[in-house]
Predict the 3D structure of the following.
Amino acid sequence: MATTMTAPEAGALPVGDPVEYYFEQAWSDGLPVVPPTQAKIDATVEALGGEPDFPEAVIPPRRGTLTREVLAINMVMAGCKPEYAPVVRAAMLALCTKQWNLNGVQATTHMAAPLLVVNGPVRNAIGMNAGHNVFGSGNRANATIGRAIRLVLLTVGGATPGDLDKSTLGHPGKYTYCIAENEELSPWAPYHVEHGMAPEDSAVFVIAAEPPHSVVNHVANDAQGVLDSIVSAMSTIAHNNAVASGSCAVVIGPEHAATIAASGFSRLDVRSYLWMNAGNTWGEVSFNDRYAGGGKVYNKALPAWYKRETNARIPIVPTPDDIHLFVAGGAAGRFSAFIPGWGRMTSPVLRKIGAMPEGAVCADGTCAL
Amino acid sequence: MEYQIFDPRGVVHAEHRDIAPRVASLAGLRVGVLDNTKWNGWKVLERTMALLGEQTPFASVTRYKKESFSVNAEPELIARIAAENDVALIGIGD
């Protein structure tokens, strides 16, 4: 796996720059990667449990084998610390389940990309950001965990843009797309607890996602008002859920969450309200049969039970459970976000992250209890 | 100064298999046509078969449907198509 590259004689053109070498091999996402060293790779392999040749997964569509050593190489290139390894691996294994359909997401002409949301004590143990600018830059853990996933998808998975990755537009989340839920400022139980895990468990949720669509509301002081703005963001024929069903995510900012909870709304109330009130008419999604050539356009990608009548209201996703709800973002600002998914061709996956002891504080791969 | 380069791509473990030999003529063959369920997919496939059928006497033309576009056809469906036909027509695209 390693070859040795020697710098030229003094005075010649510098071809011995490893950063440039990785750019030239098309092993980069367009940004400089950290040239791996054996020591850094070894430290990350150790954090993965040793056994560098252990095959964790096969990454489509190229179907390269992701051994622990290969995963470590990509993590080091991304700039990860070894202690991020359990999160990165859990996310990769979630992506490689049959129901997630990574092959489809890698190759699609849609812009969907994996969004990772992390829950539990691991967030603080490795210093993730769940607060201000949570979808943005500035946090090493968020940035490099998401980037490690992308580099694996590119190098091992072969998803070179225009070649096996046919995404027409792409989106910035294809550099990195990884956040933590703000469990501390959330008025509700965390996402992973809503889905049956213990609060002291750590987990990563992965969904094929469009970019976040901002939802502003500085006016409403009750749940209905705030949620109606999110309903408005959802009720469009433009995103993929409207035409291909499936799952979506909603991220509620802490100020909005406090207002919604003060009205007595639980997580289920929020998801149910959004599901019930968001939607389009069948006429809107079928362009009122403008392109049906005299017949009817039967949209096979939407559930059979959606009424195919012009004024019938159809939901954005089939059930309230297809709305995956998180609280994230900073303490100040009345904003939330709607995040459409790819469609029924993929199911999001929640995966527990290898046991982190309660209250563990970790640095450089060593956890003190 | 020397740098060690580490290849991030991993190895592809694949077993070589030859594809089926090409048929000399389509006449008298059973054709399976797989609808990928994309919005206009069947229109294209149906029109293609109509045009081919003007020149070629097929023994039969059978339509099959995947569960969904962008998802691999189930192995059982692929096996059925192979068992019930001599050639297959598929399409990829939006």
